[in-house]
Design a protein that fits this description.
- This protein has three helices and eight strands; from the N terminus they run E-H-E-E-E-E-H-E-H-E-E.
- It has 130 residues and is α+β, with helices and mostly antiparallel strands.
- A six-stranded mixed β-sheet has the order 1-2-3-8-6-7, with helices on one face. It has a two-stranded antiparallel sheet with strand order 4-5.
- Helix 2 packs parallel to helix 3.
- The longest helix is centred in the middle third of the chain and has 19 residues.
- The mean pLDDT is 95.
């Protein structure tokens, strides 16, 4: 039987909305759309590149708790209210995914809070899951 486990980050959004930062389901890890909030302080930068960095720190923590890392990411989705903000983030994204080359999609859409300039969602496979 496949084990399903929720990973929580401590974000107030998880409790208020009713979701987990990530779900481990056997060898698969599904990380929810993750924004640039620092969940320990619930603060967010005004700068999209700094938000992207924080998104990836948050995602990295969830992946580590799930037993994998950025090298195990197979799919990434970038959600931005303003597509012009995407290109400035490319160097940050390339540092984490450039050697991995996951399947990727960028969507221009509204986000839940007007302070949010980017949201990133990933799917990964745990290398040692049985």
């Amino acid at each position: 039987m496949t084990q399903r486990r929720a990973i929580l980050s401590g974000s107030t959004f998880e409790e208020r909305i009713g979701y987990a930062r990530a779900v481990v389901d056997g060898d698969r890890v599904h990380v929810s759309g993750t924004t640039g909030f620092d969940y320990t302080t619930m603060t967010i930068s005004d700068d999209v590149v700094e938000q992207a960095e924080q998104c990836l720190r948050n995602i990295g923590a969830a992946l580590a708790e799930a037993g994998c890392g950025f090298a195990d990411v197979v799919r990434v989705r970038y959600l931005l209210p303003d597509r012009a903000d995407f290109e400035p983030c490319w160097p940050v994204l390339r540092r984490h995914f450039g050697d991995v080359r996951p399947a990727a999609t960028m969507l221009e859409c509204g986000l839940a809070d007007p302070r949010m300039k980017i949201e990133i969602e990933v799917d990964a496979r745990r290398p040692d899951a049985s």
